[in-house]
Amino acid sequence: MSKGMTLTRFLLEEQRRYPNSRGNFTALFSDLAVAAKIISREVDRAGLVNILGATGDKNVHGEEVQKLDEFANETIIRTMERGGYLAGMASEEEEDIIRIDPACRGDYLLLFDPLDGSSNIDVNISVGTIFSVLRLDGPRAETAPGDFLKCGARQAAAGYVLYGSSTMFVYTTGFGVHGFTLDPGVGEFLLSHENIRMPDKGRIYSINEGNSRRWTEATSRYIARLKANEKDCSARYVGSLVADFHRNLLKGGIFLYPADKKSTNGKLRLLYEANPLAFVAEQAGGRASNGETRILDITPSELHQRTPLIIGSRLDVLEAEAFFKETAGETGPKA
Ligand code: AHG
Ligand code: MN
Ligand code: MN
How far is the CA of 202 from the centre of ligand 3 (A)? Predict the structure, then answer.
């Protein structure tokens, strides 16, 4: 790994693989990195400036909007909307798609969860930003919500920013997964984790056990089986998907947010959370499923669609899928 390799330099080197590239993709990522630095700075001083707490509004999912949710959402939109590479954006925090001024239109669609794990903001625990990039099928005068409803296998790129003990930018364009750490002194993301591979199996499982009384029979039996295994397992659950995913990406393990008796589609959003992380997981050798189907094969029907999510080490997820399929035959409902 060459020392001092910035994200921009790395992207420019990747761009050389495509002699006809106009550099739009590189520009998109550079601006996304700028937005990430601005959000990171605000997260870092969240306790000092008046940006903790809720705005008093509810978002499209009926969840309380935090001030930092709103700040991150606005920052990404303002940083990216005039770059000339986007045809539209869709945000977890916005009911409708975000349209682009025709003078600045490009070919890509950006989907994002501006601040993931927002219930952790006020207590100084890691949060993140998740993003997914699609290419428009063909030139279009107007972008419509239907343009965003592509299955995850068609993502051109995806990744996340983790605002943790350090800030990391992790992404894939379908050629492996690369991680960059923000050097705050230099103000640049520097290559720190080249070609990340997820262990095939792990000891960690991550699920919100507080929901156990609502779990389906299949989920209860699966978790009981994990605990009964003589190979010791460890429970880890931050409650910020980006942080839980990132830890399992590096250490190996499985994360589950299943459907339960109250939410038949689970909680997490297919387009803003499950798809981008599924692309990263698969590119690192891992796997992601809704218990029945590979996440990247699901054709979305709505922008804010939810999905059960089982994601992590390849063999652990395969084993869980087999268990859920087998148990569904006996008990009825899926994961
Ligand atoms: P968001 O903050 O973007 O709404 O996402 C919250 C998500 C995700 O980060 C996390 O995995 C999950 O919600 C935690 O939910 P529970 O508190 O229900 O476990
Ligand atoms: Mn989220
Ligand atoms: Mn969010």
Answer: 27
